[in-house]
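Q: My labmate handed me this sequence with no annotations at all. I'd like to see what the chain might look like in three dimensions before we decide whether it's worth expressing. Could you predict it?
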Amino acid sequence: MYFYIVNLSLLHPDVQTFIRNYSEEISVLALKGSPFEGISAPELIQQIEGFRRTKKKLPTWHQKDPIYFPPKLNVEQSSSEKTAKYKASLVSGRSLADCTGGFGVDSYYFSKVFDSVDHYELDKVLSSIVKYNFKQFGITNIHCVSTDGINAIKDKKYEVIYVDPTRRHEAKGKVFFLKDCEPYIVDHLSNLLENCDTLLLKTSPMLDIAVGLDELDDVAQIHVVAVDNEVKELLWVLRKKGSETIEIKTVNIGKSSTENFGFIYGEAALPSYGSPRHYLYEPNRALLKAGAFNNISEVFHMDKLHPNSHLYTGDQLIDFPGRRFKIVQQIPYNKRDMKQYISNSTANVATRNFLESVKDLRKKWKIKDGGNRYLFFTTTLDDHKVVLDCIKVTA
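A: Here is what I predict for the chain of 395 residues:
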């Protein structure tokens, strides 16, 4: 039996058709009740919500029929397919332990690059759901075990151990500090590193890299992973005896391309500074999270507008991990010029190293959102407040 306290009637073809074609509000179903004998409305709602929530995040699960979906919190907490694929590109070998298996998305992709994967999940219901789904996918090299993964592997050896501590605290709600997550990985580091060649740790994108390094020993690499310019997770690669240097690798996974940039943490980089020229460059958020501000200037040979602005400029149009703009004009931030060039216009507005918020600026100067015009409110090297009036370069 693949399920533990789960209603198998939900897998009937007629029920699956209902789940996948249901288009009304969930509240309607909750009021009307289930049209199927032996199946409650809450059970149907769980499957409908899971099906809907996986459309973009987990298209492989969304398209597979029949798949059993767990409570929505388990889907929310799972990795997306894009980030799971990225993790699987970092490691490979004979054996991997996924100590905090959850909905099994990471294990699914690890199974493609490892001979054997052990999926540990303390929740018996979730573990059985994952086991059933893996069977539907025809995966035979994942072993699902319903137990505490950290304790289960104390006497086992793996090439890679993967841990994704839960970031929900009973009292604090969503958390990101390591000490607030469960398990507190620092308490287990010594044992984990004794039992593997590589420890792969996933943490919240909110965790400050410097703070994480204060608690984690033997870090060899840190991967800052963004999807469509939103940082989704930090991945820490730890190896016993550590490394003399720590590599920071940033990735921004887009719809049609992926932006990569890497540097050595703490290694001095010499930026140059200058006034706005022909082109403006805005780094993607993975770069900003990684703190690669000076490295960008040095590597791409472009000037920073100000030490705190994190916008870059140059005379040549080059490939860049972020957005590129053609500067149409530079407008001094004063009442006369703002009224002449900006007030009552339509534009996309952004601020960098500027005291006023986007919301306040829109209201103050009556700027409508949208269009092909981009206005960057920022501060130049001479501490002058300016607006860079730009158009986006897309090719």
